[in-house]
């Protein structure tokens, strides 16, 4: 493994300009104006985290915009038989209003029938084009940059169409292209490594058992043998089966483009959970981490304390 590696929970992608609306019917901006002028009713989620609805509640000749209100940090939106448009209003009550938030969405398998836009003050930027479900498609953007506007695309037959996506709010910052939580594959600085120890969802010491590249997903799966478990928020790492030398076993993901290879020796692995999967963050060799930790400790610059032996 080459030095320290940072990975994001999705493939960096291109932000397309808004295309003209195909076929008959008003363009997205007119649909947006319609709801701002009171042209559509509101529908509330039953559990305030996830919403499931149907476009068949609209009259066939009308292009309605429906309001969806959600108040959780994670959930799912499923829109069967999409017609018209949705505005997804996220009002999470689990974060401080002053805290920076990043919103990520991930299309469900087989999602089709609508484009998903980032909208702010009437301006639309395409996040996910209808049918474009490439590997690692999980765009992210700052919560203050706008909301989600989902517009159905003209279809001959909507009976087999369902637009769906997961959403996830995090306090980590999005990358400049709105499609990454951080710069993929860039080595971490000493300061970033020390901060990752304090803020990551998992921090473990261990070695690489094997790396499996998955070109169809544009990801690499790193299988780890863990000798010490400092912290994990989810059960990514589980006790090793009897007869395998003790410790824990688990896997984390990174981008295929990072070119991760098995490396000898021990590393400190850190990272975050992203849509239920563990994604690699900073991963310095453990001896390098010990040295930078002790240097920072002598200068009183460690953001938090942990055992380094």
Automatic annotation (TrEMBL):
Its main location: secreted. Keywords: Disulfide bond, Hormone, Secreted, Signal. GO terms for biological process: energy homeostasis; positive regulation of brown fat cell differentiation. One of its GO terms (molecular function) is hormone activity. It is found in: Secreted. Residues 1-21 are annotated as: Disordered. GO terms for cellular component: extracellular space. Residues 1-42 form the signal peptide. Belongs to the meteorin family. This is Meteorin-like protein. The lineage of its organism: Eukaryota, Metazoa, Chordata, Craniata, Vertebrata.
């Amino acid at each position: 493994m080459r030095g320290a590696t940072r990975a994001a929970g999705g493939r960096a992608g291109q932000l397309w300009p808004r295309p003209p609306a195909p076929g008959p019917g008003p363009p997205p901006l007119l649909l947006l104006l319609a709801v701002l002028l009171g042209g559509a009713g509101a529908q509330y989620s039953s559990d305030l985290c996830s919403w499931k609805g149907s476009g068949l509640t609209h009259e066939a000749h009308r292009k309605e915009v429906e309001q969806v209100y959600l108040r959780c940090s994670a959930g799912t939106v499923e829109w069967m038989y999409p017609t018209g448009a949705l505005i997804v209003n996220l009002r999470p009550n689990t974060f401080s209003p002053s805290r920076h938030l990043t919103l990520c969405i991930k299309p469900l398998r087989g999602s089709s029938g609508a484009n998903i836009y980032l909208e702010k003050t009437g301006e639309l930027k395409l996040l996910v084009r209808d049918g474009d479900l490439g590997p690692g498609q999980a765009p992210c953007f700052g919560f203050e940059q706008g909301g989600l506007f989902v517009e159905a695309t003209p279809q001959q037959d909507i009976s087999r169409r369902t637009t769906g996506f997961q959403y996830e709010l995090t306090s980590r910052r999005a990358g400049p292209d709105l499609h990454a939580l951080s710069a993929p594959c860039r080595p971490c600085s000493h300061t970033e490594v020390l901060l990752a120890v304090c803020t990551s969802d998992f921090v473990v010491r261990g070695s690489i058992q094997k790396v499996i590249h998955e070109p169809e997903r544009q990801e690499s799966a790193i299988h780890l043998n863990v000798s010490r478990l400092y912290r994990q928020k989810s059960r990514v790492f589980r006790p090793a089966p009897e007869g395998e030398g003790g410790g824990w076993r688990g896997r984390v993901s990174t981008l295929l483009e990072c070119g991760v290879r098995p490396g000898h020796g021990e590393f400190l692995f850190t990272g975050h959970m992203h849509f239920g999967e563990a994604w690699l963050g900073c991963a310095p060799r453990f001896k390098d981490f010990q040295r930078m930790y002790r240097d920072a400790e002598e200068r009183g610059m460690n953001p938090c304390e942990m055992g380094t032996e």
